[in-house]
Amino acid sequence: MTPTKDPKNSMPPSKDSWKYQESLVMKTLERLEKHDQEIFKRLGRIDIKLAKLSVKSGIWGLIGACIPVAIGLIITFIKLSY
Q: How far apart are CA 76 and CA 68, in angstroms?
């Protein structure tokens, strides 16, 4: 003899039931949590790239400032030698 299914348990929850709404809320929360984690990963990568650019710009600024100083020193040494 095969067991018979209870009609209450075999029916999917109706769209008005709390179980259905709860499952929708939980799925949405899980999706949003994954999305938040991806955003935080991207922010971490952007933060690292920004730090690298900051260092590079400082180095280029230093090099750019050294050029006029070097030219000024060369001119001063030329004037002093004559």
A: 12
Instruction: Estimate to the nearest angstrom the gap between the alpha carbon of 69 and the chain centroid.
Output: 40
Residues 6+ apart with CB under 8 A from 37: none
pLDDT value of residue 44: 96
Query: Can you give the pLDDT at residue 12?
Result: 63
- Scan for tokens 């004559």, then name that residue: 82
Instruction: Tell me if 25 is assigned to some domain.
Output: yes
User: What's the gap between Cα 74 and its chain centre?
Assistant: 48
Q: Looking at the whole model, is its pTM more than 0.85? A: no
Residue at 11 is within a domain: no
Instruction: Give a yes or no: residue 70 inside a domain.
Output: yes
As for how many domains the chain has, the answer is 1
